Amino acid sequence: MRVAIGGISHETNTFSSIRTDIGHFQRRMLLRGPTLIAASRGAGNALGGVVDTALALGWELVPTIFASATPSGRIRRGVFESLTKELADGIGAARPLDGVLLALHGAMAAEALDDADGELLRRVRHTVGPETPIVVTLDFHANLTPTMAQHADIILAYETYPHLDTYARGADAALLLQRLRRGEIRPVHALRQIPMLTPLPAQSTEGQTAMRDLARQAQDLRGTPGIIALTLTPGFPYSDIHDAGLAVLATADGDAALAEETAGRLATACWDRREDFHAILMGVEEAVAVAMTAPAGPVVLADVSDNPSAGGSGDGTVILAELIRARASGAALATIADAQAVARGTALGAGGSGIFRLGGKVDRLHGPTLDVSARVRWVGDCRFTNSGPMGAGSLTRLGQTALLEFGDGQVEVIVCQHRVQVLDPALFRAVGIEPLQRRILVVKSSVHYRAAFESLAARVIDVDGPGLSSPDLSRFAYRRVRRPMWPLEP
């Protein structure tokens, strides 16, 4: 089989003031041609599953472009048009094709274009025509839309949060494309958009959660004879678009009635559990006090409202300010994205001390800029290999980084150029901090941190700070989501 692969992936927080330009893609991931295949082989992500499975099946892969940027505000329209044209043109130039496999996100929005993933799929469909199969992988937080369902033959989304099954979903996509091309299945869709916006911490499929129960019910329904795929996405609640929210897409083998029935059953189950999707948080002062008096450590404080991978600025300072005020000891915070503070630390050099204007510079939503005295313990270009379980073996780049110490080293802060979600303890170790030797670890993450940090933590606490990924959705001025919408209208 001759199959084109590629994709554009962005989780767009429409409340963010950071417009996403080409530089954001270049800093995170922008792969073209053979480099796309080389970078994906063995990688623990959806493209890795696609590429490894396709090569094992003996397919001829035609790589186009894969672009991914850290979540932020809407993509500049010119950037979206340029990347989408390059993708569609690459697919068009590769014809004739036996199929197209795309790794998308599902919550991408551009300037004046809310459903950017749907528009991308519409253009790819126009390029290849109605007979060429298109199979798509999406993120767990995708906002499923009718346009996506119309132009893709099969859509699979991650089924876990933390996302531990990305590779498996890519492999599944390749196997389903093979069945589709052989004529073994005839996909028909039924989409249900449930009027629910669910905060990220409540979307976790780990522990005793409603989302875990619904994910298990979806898995049971996938075993129904005639069901090809069943996609359950809780959605990305920080997308102020018409199609935001929890959704179910059932794909059956030529049986539209079965698809409708299956989608309806799961959608009803989701709606019936809506009151179980409230996030449980602890205030900043209380969380720091609890961590300081805990009988054992490390206690992990999750800054869930300033998650860079949900569009947070990454330079929130509220928890750090409380650690300093409360004279906490043995505390390490990762990370604050502040290029100016990093430049100051680089100029002072390791061992140097000085006054820093730290954080709170992107907007006024994540805490104030702190004027603080600190000592530079380490400075350099920081990159490390993830130890897992999320993204094991992949490279994370913080850019130029400074490790700052406050109060005779009692509080340590990793300050870096790039906005990065903290999901791997290897980040601390990359700058010389052994997380098991700290009493308090502060991480900017909503749920992904749990995959690696829960096993080493004495306790984890989701902290109710300010920011663009706050689980308190009443803080956001929604204007474009369809109404009524729970919990905006309880």
Question: Nutshell version of this structure?
Answer:
By secondary structure, this protein is of the alpha/beta class.
Fraction of helical residues = 25-40%
What is the general shape? globular
Largest sheet: 8 strands, mixed
How much β-strand is present in the residues? 15-25%
Strand order of the largest sheet: 12-13-14-15-11-16-10-17
Class per helix and strand makeup: alpha/beta
Q: What features would you describe in this structure?
A:
- The structure is a single chain.
- The protein is an alpha/beta fold.
- It contains 14 helices and 17 strands.
- The chain has helices at residues 22-28, 34-40, 46-56, 77-93, 116-128, 146-151, 166-181, 210-222, 256-272, 284-293, 318-325, 339-348, 426-429, 450-453; strands at 2-9, 29-32, 60-68, 99-103, 134-138, 154-157, 187-193, 227-233, 247-253, 299-303, 331-337, 353-358, 370-385, 395-406, 411-416, 440-443, 459-463.
- The strands form 3 sheets. Strands 12-13-14-15-11-16-10-17 form an 8-stranded mixed β-sheet.
- The protein is globular.
- The relative contact order is 0.13.
List the topology elements.
Elements: E1 2-9, H1 22-28, E2 29-32, H2 34-40, H3 46-56, E3 60-68, H4 77-93, E4 99-103, H5 116-128, E5 134-138, H6 146-151, E6 154-157, H7 166-181, E7 187-193, H8 210-222, E8 227-233, E9 247-253, H9 256-272, H10 284-293, E10 299-303, H11 318-325, E11 331-337, H12 339-348, E12 353-358, E13 370-385, E14 395-406, E15 411-416, H13 426-429, E16 440-443, H14 450-453, E17 459-463
Parallel strand pairs: 1-3, 1-4, 4-5, 5-6, 10-16, 10-17, 11-15, 11-16
Antiparallel strand pairs: 2-3, 7-9, 8-9, 12-13, 13-14, 14-15
Helix pairs in contact: 3-7, 4-5, 8-9
